[in-house]
């Protein structure tokens, strides 16, 4: 599991200036993808059967929760209903003739991990038994104006890059954000694809669709990664429904081809620090997730 670090920028908070951990959350796995994962783990059941059972769970679990029935799936944990308040009642007298729909703001499905004996997967035990942690990026979110619309954009810089830049500054040198092609290979896995200097590639993602950026070896390229000049960078986009995605590199449009709803594009890394902007299709009201990977 990758761990990113985000700096606390609230000057009124006691943790101001310190870096706090966040999970480097990857692309969400669909129900079909989860069923395939289960099938690939040596299951005796077919992919269609596993997918059918999971779909039935997604139908029946909300139905029972809506009736106030908690569901315990050993040894995973318990799904139970809770509610949030909209307008509390001030006295018993107000209960007469009161409408619960006006008192309850929303109903939530709460998940409580199983925490008994060998099947304990709560918090520290889960970390100890299941997780292998590694530091990855410094994460930062800023408000930027893109095409006249203000959006929150998240950028990531590999921690190793940030440390190298700091050491360069401490030694009186200038930090250029570049490295040799061989050196960048240790950070990106794609250093061997280029023949010259590597430069930082900042990746900005907006929109409600999903997208990925990979090198010629099919390794994911993260924002802020050093990529060798001349290396092939490949883009895959599953846009928001009914939307056509757009991609620009340093302000210039990147050509995309569509195949069965998925848009593909590629380019060669320029010999300069570059910015890649991917819009996977925004909502009509201009909203977007602003995620950056």
Description of the molecule:
With 293 residues, the chain is an alpha+beta fold. It contains six helices and 16 strands. It has helices at 31-40, 47-65, 100-103, 123-130, 159-170, 181-188, and strands spanning 2-7, 19-23, 71-73, 77-85, 104-113, 134-146, 149-158, 198-206, 210-215, 225-228, 232-238, 246-249, 252-253, 257-259, 262-268, 274-279. A five-stranded mixed sheet has the order 10-8-16-12-13. It is globular. Residues 174-195 and 285-293 have low confidence and may be disordered.
SSE layout and pairings?
Blueprint: E1 2-7, E2 19-23, H1 31-40, H2 47-65, E3 71-73, E4 77-85, H3 100-103, E5 104-113, H4 123-130, E6 134-146, E7 149-158, H5 159-170, H6 181-188, E8 198-206, E9 210-215, E10 225-228, E11 232-238, E12 246-249, E13 252-253, E14 257-259, E15 262-268, E16 274-279
Parallel strand pairs: 1-6, 8-16
Antiparallel strand pairs: 1-2, 3-4, 4-5, 6-7, 8-10, 9-11, 11-15, 12-13, 12-16, 14-15
Helix pairs in contact: 1-2
Features:
alpha+beta; disordered C terminus; 4-stranded mixed beta sheet; 293 residues; 21% helix; 6 helices; 35% strand; 5-stranded mixed beta sheet; HU Protein, Chain A
Cα(first) to Cα(last) distance is 15 Å
* Oligomerization state: single chain
Q: Low-confidence parts lasting 5 or more residues at pLDDT below 50?
A: 174-195, 285-293
Count of DSSP helices? 6
Task: Give the percentage of residues in beta strands.
Answer: 35-45%
Percent range of helical residues: 10-25%
Secondary structure category: alpha+beta
Number of E-type strands: 16
Radius of gyration: 24 Å
